[in-house]
Design a protein that fits this description.
This protein is of the alpha/beta class. About 50% of the residues lie in helices and about 10% in strands. The chain contains 15 helices and 13 strands.
């Protein structure tokens, strides 16, 4: 009776392949093949996960494929260099032990024999797995501390492609790109959507450092980064977090120069981190009507109160109109409509007329002063967070004390950033206002998203009274609720 050879699968993994050549994986495979030859096992496949950490929880496609082949009965044994190459998670190790029970899977490692069929072998595997987990957690903690120290010193963070706006040394400003960073910041402060900016840049041939068209997500991270204001940002992230937060903690002035001022950067960051921005601005990209949602139906209901429902664009016989929609299950009365073209023109005239008023300009300047006060408050809170982190690093306070002290500061920061975002949307109009004819010219060159930003910065809403059947066009139907 002949005994068939074990069908062995080699699994290789290296967490960081800095050279990108896969040499670490290749060395593991060579040692594992030698082990299979000594055991008389047939190597049927190699599953390499190069530059993938088991501790971080990142997907390991080759590891998943190996488990699938084991369950399908195509693999009898798994060979690796060490148990920690399989996994640094005790939970995943238990999955391997379960596979050994169910399918008679054998495990062999170059670093020593492990027999998963015996209690002693399993105990050794679990001890090795626990030790690997412990070492990985300590390594991660050391790396986190090193990254924070580098950030607090204002040093350059390595890795990845060069940041847009800077040369390969990551310090020298590349002016040909920096001008677009400044342009993007100004347009965001004008409440233009990121998608609108990306489409415009693509049409003009402005590409990212990877040579690809800009996407809203990438542009958002660029403009929200403290780097472009010459400041060092630290964004701690635990291993289980899949997405890095948009805003980190500003911990120091950087060793590179600023492209935009810290004040402008803080306003951009406040706008882009505003949770209501996506609903308020990004949603306008799907609108072909300027005033959808801004116009409010003012037809009296049975109780005498106005309908108040937001009007939306609906054409009739090819003619664009704004209507109070007939939406089942809502309070919309569906009893008010107005010609879209004439309404847009009337609202434009009213808004530009208001922006020509010295009183309205003074009001906007007042909101700009309020923004300066908010900016100062935000900077004070950020400095307090830096001091708290320093106290914890020196062990003057415990982690619990640090978290308790940090919470109210974080809440105050979030509230002030939200307020600053709203102030900025109005203050940025100071770059738009001028002589009536000049504003008309600027308006004509704007896209719909930019025009809507101007309108929403001036008015909260516009009530539309039902039409008088005796008048074809009545501008008195429109009641403006101006920004106070």
């Amino acid at each position: 009776m002949t005994t068939s050879k074990r069908r062995a699968a080699i699994y290789c993994r290296i967490s960081q392949d800095r050279g990108g050549a896969g040499l670490g994986v290749a060395r593991q495979e060579e040692d594992c093949r030698a082990l299979c030859e000594r055991k008389g096992w047939e190597v049927i496949a190699v599953y390499p996960d190069n530059d993938v950490s088991a501790y971080s929880g990142a997907p390991r496609p080759q590891w998943q494929e190996l488990l699938t082949d084991v369950r399908a009965g195509r693999v009898d044994a798994v060979v690796c260099w060490h148990v920690d190459r399989l996994t640094r998670s005790p939970r995943e190790l238990e999955d391997v032990i379960d596979l050994a029970d169910r399918y008679g899977l054998e495990l062999a490692t170059v670093s020593g024999e492990i027999d998963l069929a015996t209690p002693t072998g399993r105990m050794i595997a679990r001890m090795l797995g626990a030790a690997a987990r412990h070492e990985a957690e300590h390594k991660a903690e050391r790396q986190k501390r090193q990254r924070r120290q580098a950030a607090e010193a204002g040093k350059i963070s390595g890795g990845g492609t060069r940041p847009f706006g800077f040369d390969e040394d990551r310090v020298t400003v590349r002016e040909s790109e920096a001008e677009f960073v400044r342009e993007g910041a100004r347009r965001v402060l004008a409440s233009e959507s990121l998608a609108s900016i990306c489409r415009d840049w693509q049409a003009r041939g402005i590409m990212s450092t990877a040579g690809k068209p800009w996407k809203p997500s990438g542009l958002r991270r660029l403009l929200a980064s403290a780097r472009i204001s010459g400041r060092r940002e630290h964004t701690p992230r635990d291993g289980w977090e899949g997405t890095r937060p948009l805003l980190g903690e500003i911990v120091a002035d950087a060793v590179w120069p600023a492209i935009i001022s810290p004040e402008m950067s803080d306003r951009v960051r406040a706008v882009l981190s505003d949770p209501d921005r996506r609903k308020r601005v990004e949603g306008t990209e799907r609108r072909s009507y300027l005033l959808s949602g801004i116009l409010r139906c003012a037809k009296p209901k049975d109780d005498g109160k106005p309908c108040g429902f937001g009007m939306s664009g609906r054409p009739r016989s090819g003619v664009p109109r704004y209507v109070c929609p007939n939406v089942p299950g809502t309070d919309a009365c569906a009893g008010t409509a107005t010609n879209a073209e004439r309404t847009d023109s009337h609202v434009r005239e009213m808004v530009l007329g208001a922006l020509e008023s010295p009183a309205f300009i003074d009001r906007l300047r007042g909101t700009d002063d309020a923004g300066t006060e908010l900016y100062d408050e935000i900077r004070r809170d950020e400095e307090e967070l830096e001091e708290l982190a320093g106290d914890m690093g020196k062990r003057l306070i415990s982690r619990k004390e640090w978290m308790m002290a940090r919470q109210p500061i974080d809440e105050r920061l979030q509230a002030n950033r939200t307020r600053l975002a709203k102030v900025s949307r109005m203050a940025v109009l100071l770059d738009f206002i001028g002589e009536f004819e000049d504003m008309e010219e600027r308006w004509a060159k704007m896209n719909q998203s930019q025009r809507r930003a101007v309108v929403t910065s001036c008015v909260r809403s516009i009530e539309v009274i039902p039409a008088n059947p005796r008048k074809r066009w009545d501008p008195d139907r429109f009641v403006f609720n101006w920004v106070a």
